[in-house]
Amino acid sequence: MSHPQLPTIQRIISESLLIPADRIALENPIAGLHNIDSLSFEMIIVAMEAESGKSIEPENLMPLKTVGDLADLLNKLKQTS
Fold first, then answer.
1. Helices 67-79 and 38-52: angle between axes, nearest 10 degrees
2. For the chain, does the N or the C end have fewer beta carbons within 10 angstroms?
3. Which residue ranges does the record assign to the Carrier domain (predicted)?
């Protein structure tokens, strides 16, 4: 399965968690990612905001469960003006 934001999300997660990008798949649960904790999750969110140039509202974080959800959110952020 492919997603237009998968390479970007893989890079962001890889840099934040220090894991190889090729081990990050859309179906991976965020909570199951190696080295994930609240601080590293915040680093991922800050990197997504920097990438998109948009702020992420806290209520948009609650439904995030998988890497694919992160990719969908980043895609949505990049498409809004």
1. 30
2. C
3. 1-78
- The verdict on residue 1 lying in a domain is no
- In order, the DSSP letters of 9-77 are HHHHHHHHHT--GGG--TTSBGGGSTT--HHHHHHHHHHHHHHHTS---GGGTTT--BHHHHHHHHHHH
The verdict on pTM exceeding 0.85 is yes
Identify the CATH number of the domain in which residue 46 sits. 1.10.1200.10
Residue 73, pLDDT > 60, answer yes
Query: In this prediction, what percent of the chain has a pLDDT beyond 90?
Result: 95
